[in-house]
Amino acid sequence: MSDFLIIGGGVIGMLTALQLADAGQQVTLVERGMCGKEASWAGGGIVSPLYPWRYAPPISQLSRWSEGVYPTLALRLLEETGIDPEYRQKGLLYLNVDDDDKALQWARQLGKPLVQVNADFVHQKEPDIAITHENALWMPTLGSMRNPRLGQALRAKLLAMPSVTLQEQCEVRGVIRRGGQVVGVNTSQGVVEAGRLVVCGGAWSAGLLATLDVALPVRPVKGQMIAYQAPAGLVQRVVLKDGRYVIPRSDGLLLVGSTLEDTGFDKATDEEALASLKQSAERIVPALADCPVAYHWAGLRPGSPDGTPFIGALPELPNVYVNAGHYRNGLVLAPASTHLLVDQLLERTPLIDPTPFLPTQARLKG
């Protein structure tokens, strides 16, 4: 029997398993599909909230810590698996920001290198970007990750670790209680037992916890994205304008996102979203009008009432933990939120104050 059973094989579930295994624990991870193939695959990979100054201080604390971890994590995974997560640290240009005073004040308070720049600066950095306002904001330290490859690298690493058991295509069908305590789950591959259970099921976490009579206020929020096959180097940096962004990959693929839709667990794409995303993309990079759209897809974010994730033990179920509800910031917050949970699991001094994230009765009421 493992020390820990993790339900959910996204980046958060896999990073939890990696950190526990690094600490000498025996871990079983079960995933109903293939690891890293849901929201962790579908997002854009920006290693920051889109407009970080608009978030509560606890989110900023997590994101700042995670941002510092990703370069080292990417290097470790490349060296140990041969799979390059393609961490790129080329900065982010913010166009048409209407609360730039708030942004600059936030940056000064946190010591972040966010500065106001003019159109000439933007054109120097990105000659093919269309800027319609004289001023923009520039954060030179911001990075991005090729998130599908991050998922592939984490999966390969876990498969190579003798203290980790990875069970994919393994659907959880119910929980097992013994003496009033949760001791495991029934799955499509049989019974899996462990000393403690960790739910990292993203948008599906509420359904999993409903079997324990826990009402977790996490819901699916669909996001559609597209990717152009553009000439390599057309855009070098992440550019954000009016809530939409373009993210370059090293091979010329240019991601554009994203929509926000309350459609339940429907992941279908549609022509209306495609047209809207193309319009946004071509307003940022006019040259994309001559480039083909290579891909169009959708994923489901785990929405929570205020965007603050639930991280910690469940009330009245002290050996059942949750790490879910990151909304648009799952990849952004993953290293820090998993570290914070593992601190609790292993009774270490926590990374930051865990109180704002705990799934208390008051927070579970939404």
The number of helical runs is 10
Strand content: 25-35%
Give the proportion of residues in helices.
25-40%
* Uncertain runs: none
Radius of gyration: 21 Å
* Through-space gap between termini: 35 Å
Secondary-structure element pattern, one letter each: EHEHHEHEHEHEEEEHEEEEHEEEHH
Mean pLDDT: 95
Largest sheet: 8 strands, mixed
Based on helices, strands and strand pairing, what is the structural class?
A: alpha/beta
Structure write-up:
The chain has ten helices and 16 strands. It is an alpha/beta fold and 366 residues long. The strands form two sheets. Strands 1, 2, 6, 7, 8, 9, 15 and 16 form an eight-stranded mixed beta sheet that branches. Helix 1 packs parallel to helix 6 and helix 1 (11-22) runs parallel beside helix 9 (330-345). The radius of gyration is 21 Å and the shape is globular. Pathway: Cofactor biosynthesis; thiamine diphosphate biosynthesis. One of its GO terms (molecular function) is glycine oxidase activity.
Explain briefly what this protein structure is.
31% of the residues lie in helices and 27% in strands. The chain has 366 residues and is α/β, with parallel strands linked by helices.
SSE blueprint and pairings:
Elements: E1 2-7, H1 11-22, E2 27-30, H2 39-42, H3 57-81, E3 92-95, H4 100-110, E4 115-118, H5 119-125, E5 135-139, H6 147-159, E6 164-167, E7 172-178, E8 181-187, E9 190-199, H7 205-210, E10 219-229, E11 238-241, E12 244-248, E13 253-257, H8 271-284, E14 293-303, E15 310-314, E16 317-324, H9 330-345, H10 361-364
Parallel strand pairs: 1-2, 1-9, 2-6, 3-11, 9-16
Antiparallel strand pairs: 3-5, 4-5, 7-8, 8-9, 10-13, 10-14, 11-12, 12-13, 15-16
